[in-house]
UniProtKB/TrEMBL annotation:
Membrane topology: Multi-pass membrane protein
Transmembrane segments: 24-54, 66-86, 114-136, 247-266
Transmembrane in keyword set: yes
Keywords: Membrane, Transmembrane, Transmembrane helix
InterPro entries linked: ABC/ECF_trnsptr_transmembrane
Cross-referenced PANTHER family: ABC TRANSPORTER PERMEASE, PROTEIN ABCI12, CHLOROPLASTIC
CDD domains (alphabetical): EcfT
Source organism: Streptococcus caprae
Localization: Membrane
Any one Pfam family match given in the protein's UniProt record, by short name: CbiQ
Location (main, coarse): membrane
Stated name of the protein: Energy-coupling factor transporter transmembrane component T family protein
Length: 276
């Protein structure tokens, strides 16, 4: 189980007791709020709140470390590319430039550019932790029910549920096959070269993908034989009615969105300018 990437974990706490629909709405609304604004104060506050929720959910670092590392690599690459293509954008955006490091050619680092890149990086800490929290504290069946509860067609919701159920199984199969291959003498750990690891992992992944497609076809055929999708609506065994805690959660998300929109008027734009 320790090799699984992201999937539902049973646990205790208020996050596990909330309805999947309220958690989904909170994630979507707060993500919109964080994507709308570049006000560092709000983004930082939401990021710290996300870390607080992680502590409350008692999610272990080893359960998410691999995914977090991948996301951090992607985020860092994104920030570097933004700087490479527009190292002067921060100064143009905030109306002034305070040179910190003189480079060569058109490459230099200003305090304004560094501040802008920091905002881009903080946006990942706003949305990614909440997405992981939602996936790890919401049962796939309840996730499907919550999607249908907020208006998503149940056929789509059920497809998402099946995907979330299959991903952990595929991950476990991959790690089991890789471990057995290493036991037979095929080195796929960090001791092996990069190309050898890529080639060895592809030899496992490609057949695994085809076998997974066969499973999907089998499940789809079985569902069609049971006349799945014939009716316009369906009931859900894991449906959970809203409680006061759910309404408070949604209200908090709406409040964060309202603050995000209000800051646009206060800052006369999406960006918070400490040099104004």
């Amino acid at each position: 189980m320790a090799n699984r990437l992201i999937g539902y974990r049973e646990g205790e706490g208020f996050l596990y007791r909330l309805s999947g629909a309220s958690k989904l709405l909170f994630f979507v609304i707060v993500s919109i709020a964080c994507m709308t604004t570049y006000d560092t104060r709000l983004i930082l506050a939401v990021s710290l709140f996300s870390l607080f929720l992680f502590k409350q959910a008692k999610i272990r670092w080893r359960d998410i470390s691999f995914v977090i590392k991948i996301i951090m690599v992607i985020a860092t690459f994104n920030v570097i590319m933004v700087y490479v293509f527009a190292p002067y954008y921060g100064g143009k955006l905030y109306g002034t430039e305070t040179i910190l490091i003189k480079g060569w050619g058109w490459f230099y680092l200003s305090a304004q550019e560094l501040f802008y890149l920091l905002n881009l990086l903080l946006k990942y800490f706003c949305t990614v932790p909440m997405a992981i929290l939602f996936l790890m504290t919401t049962h796939p069946s309840q996730f499907a029910a919550s999607l249908n509860q907020i208006g998503v067609p149940y056929r789509v919701a059920y497809a998402v549920s099946l995907t979330l159920r299959y991903i952990p199984d595929i991950q476990e199969e991959f790690f089991m096959i890789r471990t057995s291959q290493e036991a037979r003498g095929l080195e796929l750990s960090e001791k092996a070269g990069l190309m050898q690891r890529i080639k060895g992992n592809l030899q496992i992944v490609i057949p695994l993908i085809f076998s997974s497609l066969e499973r999907i076809d089998t499940v789809s055929t079985a569902m069609e034989l049971r006349r799945f999708g014939k009716e316009k609506k369906r009931t859900w065994y894991t449906h959970q009615a809203f409680t006061n805690a759910d309404w408070l959660t949604i209200g908090l998300a709406v409040a964060i969105l309202a603050v995000s929109l209000g800051l646009i008027f206060v800052n006369h734009g999406r960006f918070y300018n400490p040099w104004a």
